[in-house]
Amino acid sequence: MFQFLFFDLDDTLLDFHRAEAIAVSKAFRDMGVTPTPERIRQYSAVNKRHWQMLEQGLLTREQVLVQRFACLFQELDIPADPVACQAAYEEYLCVGHYFIEGAEALLAALAPKYRLYLASNGTARVQESRLKSAGIGPYFEQVFISQNLGANKPSPAFFQRCFARIPDFDPKKALMIGDSLTSDIRGANGAGIAACWFNPRREPPLPGISMEYEIHSLPQLLEFLLKSSLRFPTSSKKCFSFSTISGIISQSDSASGFSGKRIRLNYAVHST
């Protein structure tokens, strides 16, 4: 059975895309830039590329924060100050929060039964402010933010520094839940713990990244953890895809020769 649950924050528990769009719009207005939908989408794409470069070790956090606006303004041919825009954006991002559907209920239900931890690549000041605003901090035994740890997901160093701070930690009983294949799921792969991909947009997987579970809504994780007594070793890499209709869970394990076990749940799970 799982005991240690690691949750990503942005777009797993809190709706970062919504918060980002609002904060960017306000920061643009401060810079005298009209926040059209196309410009907001363009910023989001530029921002995503920069965070992926941070995950790959190509940029530092400080470079990401300012260069994303510098690159955007260059692409748009707008003479705005990227440093001032970053400062304004961060201030606005610290204010308020928006939950992913089912997040509050999920944490409230899991906290009495599991040891919960937050594992985020976000900026410490912003994430701590958003956690406080959302009121979900008390659900977690510890909050791990990459800026404070000195390492970023998906690096093994990030996870090892988390593990070292948890008394009686057992990687065989740990599960990472997150929306990012390149950060959360690849990081779990490298750290030797099980992974659950939160994939509400039903995007295709990426080569070389594996997960034990795939869910399309947070209540599916709650149902699975609370109703299932199964415990799968991470080495077997059993992968599941959850749907929202009633059905059956199926399992196949070539390593042990076991195949075809079925358990009735409130949603369908298909081994891949």
Q: What's the quick description here?
A:
The protein has 272 residues and is α/β, with parallel strands linked by helices. It is 42% helix and 18% strand.
Describe this structure as you would to a colleague:
The protein is an alpha/beta fold and 272 residues long. It has two domains: 4-14 and 97-271, Rossmann fold; 16-93, DNA polymerase, domain 1. The protein has ten helices and ten strands. Strands 3-2-1-4-5-6 form a six-stranded parallel β-sheet, with helices on both faces. Strands 7-10 form a two-stranded antiparallel sheet. Helix 3 (61-76) packs across helix 4 (82-93).
Kindly estimate the percentage of residues that lie in beta strands according to DSSP: 15-25%
What is the averaged pLDDT score? 85
| Total beta strands | 10
How many independent structural domains?
A: 2
Order of helices and strands: EHHHHHEHEHHEHEEHEEEE
How are the strands of the biggest sheet laid out side by side?
A: 3-2-1-4-5-6
Percent helix range: 40-55%
The top-level CATH class of the largest domain is Alpha Beta
How far apart the termini lie comes to 21 Å
Our Rg estimate from Cα atoms comes to 19 Å
Low-confidence stretches: 229-272
The CATH homologous superfamily of the largest domain corresponds to HAD superfamily/HAD-like
The CATH architecture term of the largest domain is: 3-Layer(aba) Sandwich
The major β-sheet equals: 6 strands, parallel
Query: What's the tally of helices?
Result: 10
According to CATH, the fold-level topology of the largest domain is: Rossmann fold
Give the structural class: alpha/beta
Shape: globular
